[in-house]
Amino acid sequence: MEMINVALPKGRLGEKVYEMFEKSGFPCPSIKEPNRKLIFENKEAGVRYFWVKPSDVAIYVERGAADIGVAGKDILLEYEPDVYELLDLNLGKCRMAVAAKKDFRDDPNSTLRVATKFTNIASRYYADKCRDIDIIKLNGSIEIAPILGLSDVIVDIVETGKTLLENDLEPKETILPISARLIANKSSYKFKNELIERVREGLLRQVKTND
What we know:
The structure is a single chain. By secondary structure, this protein is of the alpha/beta class. Helices cover 32% and strands 31% of the residues. It has helices at residues 12-23, 57-62, 73-79, 119-128, 144-147, 162-166, 186-191, 193-210; strands at 4-9, 39-42, 47-52, 68-72, 84-88, 94-101, 112-116, 133-137, 153-158, 169-178, 180-184. The strands form two sheets. It has a six-stranded mixed β-sheet with strand order 2-3-1-4-11-5. Strands 8-7-9-6-10 form a five-stranded mixed β-sheet. The longest helix has 18 residues, at 193-210. 35% of the residues are buried. The model has no long low-confidence stretch (mean pLDDT 94).
């Protein structure tokens, strides 16, 4: 039987995504057993799952190690992998936003210092506004950059905004909404189209049920 390889993001989001696959008719009971395995398969259902770091899902799919996977819209926009985006799963909803100290006022005559790990998203956003910026790439604890005077603003994912508030920052502008997306390898979509479409349709039913 033809197998479909699915890259799932580790963590809470991945567990919710797996539940959607399970309800769509692609169960794999061993994935719920307490163990440290990373690969699980159910030959009867024709599916093989594996857990990977959320930011790596798109790489596995783009390079064909996975036929399909679930990645955040932020990852797809930042790294622009050569994959098909098939469905918005309506999970992991948050937003990409510009945040700064509460008393910050932008001076359009000066270069805006922007701290972020999403350098491509930030660059495109400010290019559209014709704003002169200095990008400072950071990988963690981005919130402290404005506090220590390293940057004027940050561009980051905001869920509740609680972390910002606790660090005396606030969201200033929303760049775009973020959610989890079903993506497919382009070659797999061609050669395993029927199976991938069955998965997509099953997940679409779950999205509509959860609305």
